[in-house]
# Entry
Amino acid sequence: MGVHAKPYYVSVSSDGQRAYVANSGSANVSVVDLAKRAVIATIRVGRRTGIGKVSTDGKLVVASNRADDTISIIDTERLAVRSTLKSAISRRTWPSCR
# Structure
């Protein structure tokens, strides 16, 4: 089973049925059916997709898009982006980690 370029972070739904893989190199989130071991959807989000977290009720996934300074809210039933929000913290304002 393959996902897209540079998988960065994996978050699993609370029922253990799906995994959401944030693909930093391809600006999308792969949705994996864990029982079938297959990618069932690829959802386009912003560039340099980072951490994705599943809400406690399992209805939403929140994915950070570091190169765009946005956050994508994904509807897990429709398997589509519900909204994209501007991030309150810009990657350009974060302190250097050197």
